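quick one, two chains, predict together pls
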Amino acid sequence: MSTEALTQLSNTTFGITLILYLLAAVASFHHLAFHRRGVLTTGRVMGWTGLAVHAASVVSRGLAAGRVPWGNLYEYVTVVGLLVVAAYLFTERVWRTEALGGFVLALVVAGMGGATLIYVPPGPLVPALNSYWLRIHVVMAMIGSALFTLGFVFTVLSLLQVRKERRHAAALTPARAPALVGADGGGERPADYVPAEEPDGSSAPAAPRGRLPSATTLDRLAYRTIVFAFPIWTMAVIFGAIWAEEAWGRYWGWDPKEVWSFITWVVFAAYLHARATVGWRGTRAAVLAIVGFGALVFNLIVVNTVIAGLHSYAG
Amino acid sequence: MPSFSETTYRSVVAVWRTLRSMRTALILLLLVAVASVFGSLVPQVNTAPGAVADLFRDRPLQAAVYRALGLFDVYGSWWFTLAYVLLLISLASCLVPRTRALFRGLRQQPQPVGDLQGMRLFAEGVVRGDTDVALDRSRRILRRRRFRVAPAAPGLAAEKGAARENGSLIFHWSLFLLLVGVVIGKGFGFTAQATVIEGETWTESHASYDLPPQEGRFFGEGMHAGFQLRVEDFDASYHPSGVPRDFVTRVEVIDSAGRSTGERQIRVNEPLSFQGVKVYQQGYGWAPVIDVRRDGRPLTEHPVVFVTDTPNDQRQPWRGVIKLPSLRPQVGLEFELFPDPVAGVAGAPMLEARNPFLSFQAWRGDLRLTAAQSVFSLDKRGLRPWRSGGIGLGQSTTLPGGLTVSFPELREYTQFLVKRDPGTWIMLAAALLIVLGLIPALYSSRRRVWVRAVAADGDGTLLQVGGFALQRRAAFEEEFRALADELVG
């Protein structure tokens, strides 16, 4: 196929992906509201189909450009979107969190829709990017970003559930609201402490059908996702430093991109520590996860488009 | 009433206790994050000196306030240093007792096994054989499951997952190793920039850089490697769309003893590493050979380094000057080079040399060379415009007074970033340890199992098993059930 045909294929499949994700998100929300099993199944099929079409879009983009398909911001966001959906669908299978798809897919659609504003036709790489480190460093950064994004969605939903459960509990026993798991101020407990009654892993559905999982389950999902992402992000920063040493002659130069990846790392490190600190676990730790995601998005959007730096070719 | 020294001691202890708490560490961690933000929002002297200068010109008051606050050099400012030094002290105050406990724990014998029945994870059963036989069998089972087993009368104490604490300690101490790497690299290294024209030979020495090299505190002038690079050729190539494809300098490397070690290529992403020094492809430009004679006697016949204000937009001509202080009155020549005049006229970037053309403006008067000035521009305060003209490659023109200007050759120059950083290997080792420590610190979990053996009636032994996990309790429950089945089942 010619470059033009491949580009056309990539763009068309990109559009189809957005439509499928959007329909899957609507189906997921519909299921959440009306508990219709059939709608959920249809939505899930659309989600998986969307993922396949999305992968086709990314692959044809790479073939059109004759290189890896993550050489600029548009392509980067597209691949991160792919990884978010893939990671979510994997989570859904393993932990049976079927009610969360709408939130994840809506966020991905918003991100990919935004990426169309910075669309550029496929083209060659500038010499500074032409290195095998583009495969290693950028892939790590994309996986880390995708998982932090997923962790962000779980965290926000867990905070919403905490509020809802608190209101619910207050309504049941107005005199004395029970302490909420995950937001309590109890004694020293390990970072991933879970009460024994909570079913673990895939042994039982994480929630009654059609409802959001409990705050505890969501909080644990968020923690597991972030704790998995953190070393990957660490390696992304380290590989970036090694590449910078090869390309620019210094491993660290406080370039804006470096600064914000460092801030992201520090905030998520604080999140992991906060979960083991009295007075910080629960809501405060959750807020840190949200701030960390904010730093990630700032690095992606503001640093690439507003603040000039050595990474400015990424736009 | 407490004495003064006692009060001081108490407050020191209080400060130490505060620093040791996780809460303080968390706040310091967030403080470092917030402090870093400023350095990406305010232009920094090290990364954007031009933007800093612009701010001083356009908003002098704001710039003065920023400078007073150290905002133009955030990562070198006293308050940023204070934030991370406090964080490291806080970290050390937490790590030292943990590390000591680790070493003490290695020597210490476990406590005797007491009553296990109160534990949440508990199993018991009568097995065959006397207590020694039963414990021997239990020890084998536990070891097979990779538990570290120690005798603890009347039974065994077993532990698994020490990698969590060890990994955490390795990870955190490696952060200090990073600091060591930075200090050694900066102290014993240097950074500099060199401009070399095609055909010239450049020596790695203190005096041969564009500006004096930034040398570390412990780096002496005599520590330069002294090897030579003969630049044979520089080549910039472009895709048809005008996007750069490759920048490459071919050099002959001559070691400090004067022996050639062969030809090498230096390109973006592929620096040359030689005798502890790394040479990076950083920039390039045009260096026309300009020959100026008076009555046939050469005044200058060297290649002249030309510069551009817009390296990313090569639609503009390149600029260069020649100063002729020996003439009376003195003469200064201002040149503009159009590498590809046809493309230039059409408004396209002039990427490659095609019929290059030099236009010039001659000035006459006083060059004012007694004061320091740029080699890329003229100080026009004592000069009056005199003549102007233009010459193509291989042409020459004559000015009044027997002055001829010719343009026999167009060369390119290459610009290297040259550096030595002996701390790089420490940084790499620290980074490796950070990852190797982080993974068990996050993913492994510490769990303990105790076995108590009591002689039962007849030929049997009553085995009691208790278990406890510090992390991942839900997952440990399954593991414990399987283990207990094997031990007492």
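Residues 78-107 of chain B form the longest helix (30 residues).
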